[in-house]
Specification:
Blueprint: H1 2-7, E1 23-24, H2 30-43, E2 46-51, H3 53-59, H4 66-71, H5 73-79, H6 87-91, H7 98-114, H8 120-129, E3 133-138, H9 144-148, E4 155-157, E5 160-167, E6 176-177, H10 179-188, E7 209-213, H11 223-239, E8 244-249, H12 260-269, E9 273-278, E10 285-286, E11 293-296, H13 300-312
Parallel strand pairs: 2-3, 2-8, 3-4, 8-9, 9-11
Antiparallel strand pairs: 1-10, 5-6, 5-7
Helix pairs in contact: 2-13, 7-10, 8-13
The structure holds zinc ion.
Amino acid sequence: MKQSQKKKTDWSQFLSGVPARDYIFQDIPYEKQMEQASALIKESDIILIGAGAGASAAAGLTYSGERFTSNFSEFIEKYGSVYMTDMYAAGFYPFPTQEAKWGYWSKHSMINRFLPPALPLYRQLYEIVKEKEYFVLTTNVDHQFQKAGFQTERIFATQGDYGNIQCEKGCHPKIYDAEDLFRQMDQARHDCLVPSEMVPKCPVCGGNMTMHLRCDQYFVEDENWHGAAGRYCDFLKKMEQKKGVLLELGVGFNTPTIIRFPFEKMVRENRNLSLIRLNMDEAVVPESFGNRAVGIGGDMAKVISDLNHRNCI
Ligand SMILES: [Zn+2]
């Protein structure tokens, strides 16, 4: 018992709830910013990537608009366009039965997790860092980093994965690969519902299962999750002694305490670290970081592509 307790890493030590007080939009031309970001990456010994929802949206996995209406027309018709506005809102719909719940989530997982290949933004990002010592911290649950070639041992996906399910009450610390189940459900779905015999039940308590996504206190942090948390912790220690870059992608202010604020804290407290922040609308950086920070707004797919191009020269 002692052994398993010892292995667990305290998640709270990674978090920070304190935002910078001196945010600015840098008044520097794009070309100059790219030059600066590229130089920081080239000169670094170690890179920590932090990726939020904005990264996958920029890569093409948008949750609204045509991608939603064309793939989920049946669901919009059945449950109403007032509730079914996009894939994010749809996930919170109070589905009346388990057959309806899995009817939706099997579709959502197919569209966002199993059908898309490794997208160019992620593949180019991998090209940029693959020769470096790197680690990925992400709140995304779409498996894009793994698909693009990033090593599983160097990824900490804190919020789960669309490919896995768990006991709804988290009665035991285990998650289950649901790829085969979701593919079967996708074939069998009728009128947005899956057949009752396909509805998964918890093998321990017999209760309902749910997606392995952090949305309440029952989220399961299994052995692999703790392993990744531990490796992230080790990486942070290693980074303290090296010249490092924190490359933050598409992290807004919805859950800033996991990536955005901790990254700022690390750069504030260690002069060997620099921050490259890519964010569509919120590429503000602390003014006090001076030339140790680059905040680049706009289309991240273009920024990554340009960075990769410069990296290859
Ligand atoms: Zn259970």
